[in-house]
């Protein structure tokens, strides 16, 4: 049972206790938490906007070129654009994970796309080409990637495009098969960044008796010394902590949504 696993890990850490985060780690984790929350909000907005559009206006689906989401984690906006990538067809606004407006653009609307949105659309295309050219960057499911395009934090900063393996069953969560590509202000895609080296599907209730709910998910992280935005995203999706074993010497990093508790060292 996952509670027993976590308890055993913490007991093994034992007398070593918890370690305070360094100032550098705290700053990095703040950025990671913010980015993970943004990924979660943008992914949710795209999902619910697609459902709303398909349910109320199925006739426009065939003439769409795609979508991007901008705004903030608290108030994202999903923009579905035409095949030419020049005009908005449908726009949905959300507040606190609730759809507050979803409508087709009309003849009286200014449906032109802003330069920032056009840049996001172009960045997604450039990043998709980089992913397609990397034979090892493939989803860990028999479905296409979910994509999230994150606008730059500064005008000359990169647009980051995430390619994420979708969750296809309720009892397994993909922690592997997620990638990111930064696209610079000139439209050039950088290298594909991997969050794991292999596919990693984690059961949502490993060893738990029927009907019980596991306390947390335990995963290892070997491509970095800290949790990542993917761990934040999955914690928010699962609505439970993710215990990330990372670093040398190894430490347990409890990830609770976009919050991080002090790490627990494993051994001495």
Major sheet summary line: 5 strands, mixed
- Roughly how much helix do the residues carry, as a percent range? 25-40%
* β-strand number: 15
Tally the structural domains. 1
Strand content: 25-35%
Distance between the termini: 26 Å
Radius of gyration: 20 Å
* Helix and strand composition category: alpha+beta
- H and E string: HHEEEEHEEEEEEEHEEEE
Low-confidence stretches: 1-16
**pLDDT averaged over residues:** 89
Shape: globular
Number of helix segments? Answer: 4
What would you say about this model in short?
The protein has 268 residues and is an alpha+beta fold.
Walkthrough of the structure:
The chain has 4 helices and 15 strands. Strand 2 and strand 3 (88-95) form a beta hairpin. The two termini are 26 Å apart. It has helices spanning 2-13, 23-56, 115-133, 229-238; strands at residues 64-71, 76-82, 88-95, 98-104, 146-150, 159-164, 172-174, 178-183, 189-194, 201-203, 217-221, 242-246, 251-256, 259-260, 264-265. With 268 residues, it is α+β, with helices and mostly antiparallel strands. It has one domain (2-265). The longest helix has 34 residues, at 23-56. The strands form 4 sheets. Strands 11, 12, 13, 14 and 15 form a 5-stranded mixed β-sheet that branches. Strands 1-2-3-4 form a 4-stranded antiparallel β-sheet, with helices on both faces. Residues 1-16 have low confidence and may be disordered.
């Amino acid at each position: 049972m996952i509670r027993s696993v976590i308890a055993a890990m913490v007991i093994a850490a034992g007398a070593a206790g918890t370690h305070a985060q360094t100032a550098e780690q705290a700053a990095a984790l703040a950025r990671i938490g913010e980015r993970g929350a943004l990924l979660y909000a943008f992914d949710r907005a795209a999902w619910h906007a697609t459902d709303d559009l398909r349910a109320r206006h199925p006739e426009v689906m065939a003439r769409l070129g795609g979508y991007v989401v901008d705004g903030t984690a608290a108030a994202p906006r999903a923009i579905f654009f035409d095949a030419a990538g020049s005009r908005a067809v449908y726009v949905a606004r959300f507040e606190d994970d609730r759809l507050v407006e979803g409508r087709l653009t009309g003849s009286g609307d200014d449906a032109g796309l802003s330069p920032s949105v056009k840049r996001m659309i172009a960045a997604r295309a450039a990043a998709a080409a980089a992913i397609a050219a990397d034979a090892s960057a493939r989803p860990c499911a028999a479905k296409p990637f979910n994509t999230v395009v994150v606008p730059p934090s500064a005008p000359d900063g990169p647009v980051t495009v995430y390619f994420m393996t979708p969750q296809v069953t309720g009892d397994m969560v993909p922690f592997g098969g997620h990638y990111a590509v930064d696209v610079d202000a000139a439209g050039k895609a950088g290298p594909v960044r991997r969050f794991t080296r292999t596919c990693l599907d984690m059961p949502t209730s490993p060893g738990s008796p029927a009907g019980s709910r596991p306390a947390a998910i335990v995963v290892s992280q070997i491509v970095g010394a800290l949790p990542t935005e993917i761990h934040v995203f999955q914690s928010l999706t699962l609505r439970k902590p993710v215990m990330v074993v990372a670093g040398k010497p190894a430490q347990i990093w409890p990830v609770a949504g976009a919050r991080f508790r002090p790490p627990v060292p494993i051994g001495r």
